[in-house]
Specification:
single chain; 184 residues; alpha/beta; Rossmann fold; seven-stranded parallel β-sheet; 7 helices; 43% helix; globular
Length: 184
C-alpha cells in the first residue's frame, strides 16, 4: 500500500466560462497536472472552468471530488443544474457561499482561474482561512477577477498566511504548488 500523502487541490473559477474556451483548455491542463502528481482535485461541483479541470483530471486517471451547494442529488441536478460526473459528490445543503467555505477549508491548495464574484468570495476565504502549510495559486493571464488577486492582496495590506504563487503556465503552477506542499 502506498503511504504517500495525496494532497487536495481545489480549482476555483468561473462557472459561466465555457469548458472548451482557451481558459477551459488551461483548466483541463491544470486537472491533468494535478492527476499526474496523484492529487485529489476538488471543485464546487459546478460547470465551467472547475468542471473543465475535473474533466482533465478524470481523463488522466485522477480522483475528483465535487463539494455541492445542494442538499442532495436532486437539488444538485435540478436546482443548480450542475454536472454529476465527479467520482465523489458531497452534498452540503449550504448554498453556494456556505459550500465555498467547506470547499476552500478542505483544500491543501487552491488554484484560481478567471472568475467573478463567486471566485472572489472563494479567494477571500482562502486568504483568511488557509494556513502556512497551504498554498494559493493564481493562473496569471486567465482573465476575470483572478488576474486582480495578487494586486488586491498587496493593496489591502493583509498578507496571506498561505504561500501565494502566481504563474501563467498551468503545469508550472501545479508543479510549484506541489513542491511547496511536499516541503511542509
Amino acid at each position: 500500500m502506498n503511504n504517500e500523502r495525496r494532497f487536495k487541490i481545489a480549482v476555483l473559477g468561473s462557472a459561466s466560462d465555457s469548458e472548451y474556451s482557451e481558459s477551459g483548455e488551461k483548466a483541463q491542463r491544470i486537472g491533468r497536472a494535478v492527476a499526474a502528481y496523484r492529487g485529489v482535485l476538488l471543485t464546487g461541483g459546478c460547470p465551467g472552468l472547475p468542471h473543465a479541470a475535473a474533466m482533465g483530471a478524470s481523463a488522466a486517471g485522477g480522483l475528483t471530488v465535487a463539494v455541492s451547494p445542494a442538499m442532495d442529488r436532486t437539488g444538485h441536478v435540478t436546482e443548480y443544474l450542475y454536472p454529476q460526473d465527479s467520482d465523489v459528490i458531497m452534498y452540503t445543503g449550504m448554498g453556494r457561499k456556505g459550500r465555498n467555505v467547506i470547499l476552500v477549508r478542505s483544500a491543501d491548495a487552491g488554484i484560481f482561474v478567471s472568475g467573478g464574484m463567486g471566485t472572489l468570495n472563494e479567494f477571500t476565504i482562502a486568504v483568511d482561512e488557509l494556513g502556512p502549510d497551504c498554498a494559493i495559486g493564481v493562473l496569471a493571464g486567465s482573465g476575470g477577477l483572478s488576474d486582480e488577486f495578487p494586486d488586491l492582496v498587496a493593496r489591502v495590506g493583509k498578507p496571506t498566511r498561505a504561500l501565494l504563487i502566481v504563474d501563467g503556465n498551468p503545469e508550472t503552477l501545479v508543479q510549484k504548488l506541489f513542491a511547496h506542499l511536499r516541503r511542509r
